[in-house]
């Protein structure tokens, strides 16, 4: 029986995404990574908003589009699977990190062009939704 470790995230990118091409026995694959800051409904004891930060990665066509269209500060809504990576550091100590492998990303900050004149920020960003039912994302 498969357990569910799915997440639905809504937040803003903390920096521009990083995209790279990886070559292995499966061929060339595109990976895009970014972090999302998500505000909580409650405040911390000092009165500031509580915020959580999540590492996100996308694969394949979704990675290409995320790398091309997303920028620091952009608002996104995404659905993905949680994945825990485990490794030994240089001193041999066990380490772990949990990240979200996105299967769907909606680019909420991108406004469709209303005329032939687009703003500088959105000049090459003329869509607001990119989704992937990419089996590559789950297989990563």
What does this structure look like?
The chain has 140 residues and is mainly beta. The chain has a single domain, classed as OB fold (Dihydrolipoamide Acetyltransferase, E2P) (Beta Barrel), CATH 2.40.50.140. Helix content is 11%, strand content 53%. The chain is built from two helices and seven strands. The protein has helices spanning 60-69, 135-139, and strands at 6-13, 18-24, 27-43, 49-59, 75-88, 94-107, 129-131. A five-stranded mixed β-barrel has the order 1-3-4-6-5. Strand 3 (27-43) and strand 4 (49-59) form a beta hairpin. The longest helix has 10 residues, at 60-69. The radius of gyration is 17 Å and the shape is globular. Residues 115-119 and 131-140 have low confidence and may be disordered.
Measured distance between first and last alpha carbons = 20 Å
- Name the poorly predicted regions: 115-119, 131-140
Oligomer: single chain
In the sheet with the most strands, the strands line up as: 1-3-4-6-5
| Proportion of residues in extended strands | over 45%
Structural class of the helices, strands and pairings?
A: mainly beta
Radius of gyration equals 17 Å
User: Based on DSSP secondary structure assignment, what is the total number of beta strands?
Assistant: 7
Largest sheet: 5 strands, mixed, barrel
Query: What is the number of domains?
Result: 1
Supply the number of helical segments.
Answer: 2
What is the succession of H and E elements? EEEEHEEEH
At the first level of CATH, the class is: Mainly Beta
- Average pLDDT for all residues: 82
- CATH architecture grouping: Beta Barrel
What's the CATH superfamily, by name? Nucleic acid-binding proteins
Which shape, going by the Cα principal axes?
globular
The helix fraction, in percent, is 10-25%
The CATH topology is given as OB fold (Dihydrolipoamide Acetyltransferase, E2P)
